[in-house]
């Protein structure tokens, strides 16, 4: 499905569109992979029931609730704990211009590493959706290794809707990964995908 960016207020004035709200939860970390590769940031996505990667969240009805409270409700189901999302956490809204009439609202929320770990634990032990709509939370490997392991390999997997674009633009804008490293990883991921397709 193809998307174009749209202002949030304009999106909310559309008639007949569904509204999906998803969030990228992230935290700074001092952890080092193999004791030597600094991870710098933890970014969460999830493996969905359909085998696709995406962000936690879901459909919200703006005539009944705000985008933020609807998203917080979805997060309680998928992560098993309250995570308050505010209008300041809004990152982008995108309008589908093929397929179903849908606006994908995207939020990013910075947490502490301890809060993020708590959310990961609650997603397994408390969330009603665990093992049903959500097969598990996953951390995005933001580093690149030899043989295109890490971020390039992650990006070569299959993603729901525009969640891959949402991830890439948030990583760039929030400066969690440099523009140069994002571009290099995307290029390698494209090659991995081509090889898989052969
Ligand atoms: O992470 C995502 N980013 C953008 N769009 C997404 C993401 N995950 C799902 N979607 C799309 C797919 C669907 O058209 C709607 C609602 O999906 P879902 O999260 O499965 O919501 P419900 O559980 O059906 O409420 O958003």
TrEMBL record:
The segment(s) forming the Nudix hydrolase domain are: 24-169
Where does the record place it?
Answer: Nucleus, Nucleolus; Nucleus, Nucleoplasm
User: Which reaction is the catalytic activity of this chain?
Assistant: dIDP + H2O = dIMP + phosphate + H(+); a 5'-end (N(7)-methyl 5'-triphosphoguanosine)-ribonucleoside in mRNA + H2O = N(7)-methyl-GDP + a 5'-end phospho-ribonucleoside in mRNA + 2 H(+); IDP + H2O = IMP + phosphate + H(+)
Q: Which GO terms describe its molecular function?
A: 5'-(N(7)-methylguanosine 5'-triphospho)-[mRNA] hydrolase activity; IDP phosphatase activity; phosphodiesterase decapping endonuclease activity; snoRNA binding
> What cofactor does this chain's UniProt record say it requires?
Co(2+)
Alphabetically sorted, this entry's keywords are: Nucleotide metabolism, Nucleus, RNA-binding
Report one GO cellular component.
Answer: nucleoplasm
PROSITE patterns linked: NUDIX
EC numbers on record: 3.6.1.64
Protein's GO biological process: mRNA catabolic process; nucleotide metabolic process; sno(s)RNA catabolic process
| Span of the signal peptide | none
Similarity comment text for this entry: Belongs to the Nudix hydrolase family. NUDT16 subfamily.
Protein name, please? Answer: U8 snoRNA-decapping enzyme
- Organism in which the protein naturally occurs: Scleropages formosus
Lineage of the species this protein comes from: Eukaryota, Metazoa, Chordata, Craniata, Vertebrata
| Underlying gene | zgc:103759
